[in-house]
UniProtKB/TrEMBL annotation:
This is F420H2-dehydrogenase 40 kDa subunit. SUPFAM superfamilies: 4Fe-4S ferredoxins. It comes from Bacteroides thetaiotaomicron. InterPro entries: 4Fe4S_Fe-S-bd, FrhB_FdhB_C, Polyferredoxin-like_ET. PROSITE patterns: 4FE4S_FER_2. It holds the Pfam family Fer4_7. Residues 1-30, 35-64 form the 4Fe-4S ferredoxin-type domain.
Amino acid sequence: MIKLGNKENCCGCTACVNICSHSAISMQPDQLGFWYPVINKEKCVQCGLCQKVCAFNKDYFKELNLQKPDVYAVRHKEMKEIEESRSGAMFVAISDSVLDKGGVVYGVGYMGHFRVSHKRASTKEERDEFRGSKYVQSDLNGIFVQVKDDLKRGLHVLFSGTPCQTSGLYSYLSLLRISMERLCIVDIICHGVPAPNVWRDYLAYVEQKQKMEVSAVNFRDKSKLGWASHQEAFTFKERVVYASTYARIFCQSIMFRHSCGICHFTNLQRPSDITIGDFWGWERVDAHFNADNKGVSLVLVNTQKGRLFFDETKKWIDYIETDPQHCMQLNLQSPTAIHPRRDDFERDYINHGFLYVGRKYGDIGWKYKANLYILVIKRWTKSMLYK
C-alpha cells in the first residue's frame, strides 16, 4: 500500500490508480487543485503493485537511453506551424508522422471551460489543440488506460507530457508487459507545474473584470512581443486582452506542486524517447537560425527508438545538430528552487482567495504599480548620477 507521507514524494502521475485492479485508489484534489492518491483500505488487498509502479524516484527506468542524447535545434519548414506553436513546432512534425500512419496522439488540451487536461487526438485538427504551452498541471484521469488499449489494438501512439508523467506511463505499461514498439514517448523540459485552482480562479477574475466570457487562451502569446516574451492573451468577442499576472506568479515558482522541488528528471537521462523544449541559447549554435524571433525548438533524442522517430520527421523540419554543452539550461541540470514562501502562498490562497494572492504576489492593485513606479524613479535617478 502506498504511504504518501510527505506531499513532495508524489507527482500525481496516476500510475498507481491505473495499476490497481481492485479500484482501491482514487485521486483526490487538495485545495490548490493538485491530485493525490487516496487509499480505500477496505478494498486494498496489499498486493504492492501501487508501490512497484511508482516511478517518481531516482531509480526510474533509463536502461534504453543513449550514453548521451543527440541534440538538435529545430524549426518546422512551414512558418504557419511555427507561428501557431510555442517554439519551433517540433511537436507538430513528430505528431504528424504518427497521425499519417493512422496513429493517435495524446497531449494537453482543454476540457470544459479551459480546464487543462490530457486528451486523445486521431486527426490533425484535434491535435492542433495540443500546440502551445499550458502552464498548469494537466488532469490525466483515465489516460494511461486509453494508451494501453490503443497499443493493444496495434495503433501507433505518441504520448507527450511532463517527465514525471512520461516516467509514470512507461512504468505502468512495463508492469503490464504491454509492447511499446509502436509508442513514442515525448517529454518536455519542465520548469514546474502550477496549481489548477489558481488558474481556474485567475480565468474567472479576468472574465469578471472584462464582463464577458473568454473564447480563447494563449499562455505565452508570441504574436505581439515575440518568442521570448511571457505574457497571457485572452480572446473575447471583439478584442484580445493581454495580461501578465499569472506569468508573474508562475515565474516566482511559488505555486508549484511540492514534488517539483525535488524532481528526479532534471538531467540528460530523460524518461522518454524524445525531449522537446524552447532552445534558449540557440545563438551559440547558429546566429541566423532564429533571427526572426519566431521560435526554435530544442530536441534531445534519448533512445534508439527516438532516433527512428526523429528520422521520420526530417522531411518537415530544418535542423542543426549540436552538442549538449550548448543547451544546458537550468532544468536540464537541477530542479527548480521552490520559493521559500510557497507555504505562505498556499495558506493565503486557501484563507483569502485568488484576488488576495494576486495583489500580494502578483501585479494586481495599486501596491504593485506604486512599487514599480518607485523602482523606475530609482533607476532613473541612478542613471542621472552617472551621466
